[in-house]
Amino acid sequence: MRTVLLCLILIASLFSNAQTSESDKRKKQFNLSSASIAVEGYDVLSYYTASPKKGSKSFSTTHNGITYYFTSQANLDLFKKSPQKFEPGYGGWCAYAMGNTGEKVEVDLETYKIVDGKLYLFYNAYFNNTLPKWNKDESNLKLKADKNWITIYK
After folding, report:
1. Phi-psi region of 128 (alpha: psi -120 to 50; beta: other; left: phi over 0)
2. What crossing angle do the helices spanning 2-29 and 138-153 adopt, rounded to 10°?
3. Residues in contact with 85: Cβ distance below 8 Å, sequence separation at least 6, in sequence order
4. Which sequence spans correspond to the domains of the chain?
5. What's the whole-model pTM score?
6. In the predicted model, is pLDDT for residue 18 greater than 90?
7. Among residues 102, 134, 119, which one has the least CA distance to residue 44?
8. Is the N or C terminus of the chain more exposed, i.e. has fewer CB atoms within 10 Å?
9. Nearest alpha-carbon partner for 98 in 46, 53, 54, 140
10. Displacement of CA 36 from its chain's centroid (Å)
11. Mean pLDDT for the chain?
12. pLDDT of 51-108, one tens digit each?
């Protein structure tokens, strides 16, 4: 009986450590505020329905160590049903830079594109909007960005 109990405790401990390390890895690799909030508190679902809007702490959830804010309970509930669908591509870093150079580059949260149901964000400052560059070679850049993100995220 003791052996079985000890094995169960060991398995639970290993599972807990795996969950913690995944959350820690995400916090390290995702583009977050100092409080581990994604997309500077913008509601990721608002990108799909209108223009991007800031969410509220009143409607928030934490998914695998990353906190998301929403504008409504309905958006929060929808996110909870399928968080991987609504999390921004490449951890919220610039999609163009991820595909072009494999680097994590900051974004302008109002420069974005939805591709195959996924939100991608882009750098847009100092007369350098990367979204038009992405649009010129999207399929190639997306393939490269997907590979680069896998390498970075390891």
Report:
1. beta
2. 130
3. 117, 118
4. 29-87, 88-154
5. 0.85
6. no
7. 119
8. N
9. 140
10. 11
11. 89
12. 999 999 999 999 999 999 999 999 999 999 999 999 999 999 999 999 999 999 999 9
Spatial separation of the C-alpha atoms in residues 117 and 113, rounded to whole Å: 10
Question: Which residue's structure tokens are 């009986």?
Answer: 1
Range 5-33 burial, b when 16+ CB lie within 10 A, else e? eeeeeeeeeeeeeeeeeebeebeebbbbe
Residue pair 88/137 in contact (Cβ under 8 Å)? The answer is no
Task: Please provide the size of the chain in residues.
Answer: 154
**Lookup: tokens for 61:** 């959830």
| Residue pLDDT, tens place only, 104-114 | 999 999 999 99
